[in-house]
Amino acid sequence: MSEAILDIPLDAGNPVEPFLRMDRMPHIWCPACGIGTTVNCFARALESSKLDLNKVAVVSGIGCTGRVAGYANLDSFHTTHGRAIPFATGLKLSNPELQVVVYSGDGDLFAIGGNHFIHAARRNMDIKVICVNNLTYAMTGGQTGPATPSEVISATSPYGVFEPSFNLVQLAEAAGASYVARWTTFHVKQLARSMEEMLHKKGFCFIEVLSPCPTLYQRRNKMGDGLDAMKFYKQVSKVRNGAPTSECSLSKAGEIVVGKFVDRDRPDYLELLTHQMHASLGNRYADPEITTCSEG
Amino acid sequence: MHADPKGVLTGVHFLDGDHACCEGTLAAGARFAAGYPITPSTEVVERFAWRIPTVGGIFIQMEDELAASIALQGAVWGGAKAFTVTSGPGFSLMMEHIGYAAITETPCVFVNVQRGGPSTGLPTLPAQADMMQAKWGSHGDYSIIALCPNSPQECFDLTVTGFNLAEEFRVPVMMMLDECVGHMTEKVVIPESDQIDITPRRFTHESPETFRLFKPREDLVPDMVKAGDGYKFHVTGLTHDERGYPSMNVETQDKLVRRMHDKLKPFSNGRALFEAVDLEDAEVVVVSYGITSRVAQRATQLARAKGIKAGIFRIISAWPFPEQHIKELAGRVKAFVVPELNLGQMVHEVERHTAGRAKVISVPHAGGSVHKPEVILNAILEAAR
Q: Which residues of B touch A284 (CB under 8 A)?
């Protein structure tokens, strides 16, 4: 054991505590669930980003990951199922100095919220989307979702999933995202770095994080516990930065390609809007001043 | 406070109801709208999209009504006054977020220019068949305010009122136009900005340390905040305590749902909006709203010409239902006649508050047109018998 570890006083708090609502602990997530790991990475990314935390807002949808908003010590919004992105869109446009982060799950963002995802990416809305992909609807008991791979057993696919799943990173790139990356909860350093990079990137950014659900997904599919999930991620993950997203599909037991796949510069929605209005209206265009509905 | 002159198109105009409604949103201080095209309501946001870049604000056309109805709430929590506009099929999709606005007490305005239904129904023709949906369409117990203009002038005036009520009570306000009112063109007078009263958002003066997001004031309405001001607040559609934290128990549910209901009690106690015509001696009162009230006006004139003491109670704030006034009238009139462009919706409220003390005659119409005055007249004659 190193000296540095022995130097930590016994009453030292966890370094991510300031980023959490400690009065809401313990959280509701199961033992070995990966969502908490991603939140830890997010807290570290916020810290290293040096952003003014009064100007960071988190918006979540519904589901296990939807609960992140409730634990983040930031302005936070736990919205309706699938609608975190359009809520974030309104929040960002009315108050552009905010850094708006959408934090939600695969079912929320890509089934019921799929349409909103592709349109926000198309517009290059300046929001940052973190998708915790546990490959299932966990909050409701482990049903098949749009990211559940073939042959997986789920509560609603007792004989195995047969419908094809989305390749989320390919979808994000095709729809127009400025930044696309994928990691697993085994890759905590890389994930935190990627999150920090995304927080400084303009435009629609997307990080997919593969995250274990031992209680439902792994139990039903005889994939072991949380530790087994880490071993699995370590064994099958392959870092391929810049890999074509079309080659990054997921399967039940096959390779998981991780890394940063897309990092490109496109004008974001507000830049496009401002440019168009100036071009059409010249001096008549009035810059939006929409957060002034109070008296005085 | 008074309206910001930037948004006020002072003058005498010839406008349809949809356009007048848009001018009302601008005068009221709305600087954000999210919409999705749907007949017969689109003109409201078309005009907003045309006007807002020179006023200072944003219009965004979203991918569907689900998105529009939640984007506007994001904008409100960012600090804007915001609204969306739709008609029946879109209104059905927006129910999810009317519930969200209710439980998160997000002040905002939903404009519904009603057309014939169910489903796609009659896209270009009028109905008033979403009146119960406005009150009960989203799941769970909640209370909202709904206003029913009957002219382009009122589309302007009441839209300003609607935004003010949304801020005062922190509820979603439904502007329940109908296709006729939305598309009829009449004179609309827009006053000087200093003649237009605006209810500013009541932002908290508490510090972030002591502030509790859903701690109500004496009027049962909590103070607002906006994102980015250091409060680090949490908003959720789950049942929540005064801190805004989810709390899944009977006591929190009871306290929250009752307060959200009770905060609108002033509407049962003098705040209801209505128009009364010839009620002093009335024996038969026609209760109507929106375009139907204008047909009812003709019918009561015809009835008076026949020597029948007919009067008009025009509902302007349909929700909360003006029960105080119906109860009072029920004690002294012979009958109510209730024409509506539906098969009988608000008439049930009239019956409920009349409680058998006067006759209540429904005059239904499935929509697609308005009543003929004679149809309402016949009901008045029957009621007077």
A: 53-54
Q: B168 phi and psi, to 5 degrees?
A: -65, -45
φ/ψ of B352, rounded to 5, equals -60, -40
The predicted-structure confidence for A103-151, as pLDDT tens digits, reads as follows 999 999 999 999 999 999 999 999 999 999 999 999 999 999 999 999 9
Q: Is B238 in Cβ contact with A86 (below 8 Å)?
A: no
- ipTM topping 0.90: yes
Number of domains in chain B: 2
Residue A98 lies in a domain: yes
Task: Out of B195, B217, B236, pick the residue that ends a domain.
Answer: B195
Angle formed at CA A69 by CA B260 and CA A171, multiple of 5 degrees: 120
B341, B127 in Cβ contact below 8 A? yes
- Please indicate, yes or no, if residue B161 is contained in any of the structural domains: yes
Q: Which residues contact B377 (CB under 8 A, 6 or more apart)?
A: B299, B302, B303
Q: Which domain holds residue B364?
A: 275-384
Q: Quickly state the pLDDT bin for A5 (edges 50, 70, 90).
A: low
Same domain for B179 and B81, yes or no, is: yes
For the sheet with B310-315, list strands across it: B274-277, B310-315, B284-288, B335-339, B359-363
**Does the residue B122 lie in any domain?**
yes
Could you tell me the maximum CA-CA distance found in chain A, to the nearest angstrom? Answer: 67
B205 CB burial (10 A radius; 0-12, 13-18, 19+): exposed
Q: Which residues of B touch A92 (CB under 8 A)?
A: 74, 78
Give the residue from B58, B65, B247 with the most A CB atoms within 10 Å of its CB, the best one to mutate. Answer: B58
Specify if A61 maps to a domain: yes
Bridge pairing between strands A256-263 and B122-126: unpaired
- Are B190 and B317 within one domain? no
Query: B312-349, pLDDT tens digit by residue?
Result: 999 999 999 999 999 999 999 999 999 999 999 999 99
The number of distinct structural domains making up chain A is: 1
- Optimal mutation site among A62, A76, A287, A290, interface B, most CBs of chain B within 10 A: A290
Radius of gyration of chain A (CA): 20
Name the one residue in this structure whose structure tokens are 């108050």.
Answer: A95
**Where a domain ends, among B176, B195, B214?**
B195
- The residue of chain A with its CA nearest to that of B67 is A86
Residue A23 domain-assigned?
yes
Residue A265's DSSP bridge partners are none
Q: Is A219 exposed, middle or buried (0-12, 13-18, 19+ CB in 10 A)?
A: middle
- In this structure, is residue A290 part of a structural domain? no
CATH code for position B179? 3.40.50.970
Task: Judge whether B201 lies within some domain.
Answer: no
Contact call for B228 and A75, based on CB within 8 A: yes
Which tens digit of pLDDT belongs to each residue from B45-80?
999 999 999 999 999 999 999 999 999 999 999 999
Query: Residue A91 and residue B53: Cβ atoms within 8 Å?
Result: no
CA distance B23 to chain A (A): 17
CATH of the domain at A71: 3.40.50.970
**For A125, nearest residue in chain B (alpha carbons):** B60
Shortest Cα distance, chain A CAs vs residue B96, angstroms: 8
Q: Which domain range does residue A218 map to? A: 19-265
- pLDDT exceeds 90 at position A196: yes
Q: How many CB atoms lie within 10 A of CB B86?
A: 25
Look at residue B267 and tell me if it is in a domain.
no
Tell whether B191 and B285 lie within a shared domain. Answer: no
Selected residue of B234, B241, B243 to mutate for chain A interface (largest A Cβ count, 10 A): B234
The mean of the pLDDT values for chain B is 98
Q: Which CATH number is B345's domain given? A: 3.40.50.920
State which amino acid sits at residue A138.
A
